Prior knowledge:
ten-stranded mixed beta sheet; alpha+beta; Alpha-D-Glucose-1,6-Bisphosphate, Chain A, domain 4
Amino acid sequence: QAYLSYSNIAALTHLAGKPGWDIARTLDNVKIWTHEEGAVLSFKVEMQVKVPSHVAFSLLSDFRLRQRWDRHFLTCEVLQAVSEEEKIYHVTAPPTTGHKPRDFVILVSQRQPCRPQEPYMVAVRSVTLRAVPPSPKFCRSEILCAGFQIHSNGSSSCTVCYFNQVTAGVMPYLAANLTGSSKSIEDTALECIKFLE
């Protein structure tokens, strides 16, 4: 578990630090970036939020609050509290056209910064839990690497960056999005800002 947790944080740090991010869209408080490497597409959503970074961190690290602003989360329950900084959740997501609803078993690892210039981190990856085998009602999907980095901009504002390395499981939600025919990434980001503020 210690290894999984370490690799979860390390994978998010590595994804965030990759060169070659291309800006796809800019709004007032939201920027959307993409990164392509072989068959893997990653995206980053950068949000300017008028709350202190530690407040954003405490709200974003509890995934049970996610349904309040992210309509891709139908339900979210804690399966196991591994430690104060690690929890395993079961998440269900609504069906996309012609598909069963999806579900995910994810490990969420949270870290506070060790040094002032470092971001708060909430890293997410899929894990396998014997207690929750795939169910015929759902299409079990996988998150390779996702999560939030929260950078302080002073005492009352912060920059929240959401990252997701996209697999085929998440692709149906995003395909329409990145071509610009759907605005769900932008809408979700604006809902997130509204929730945090």
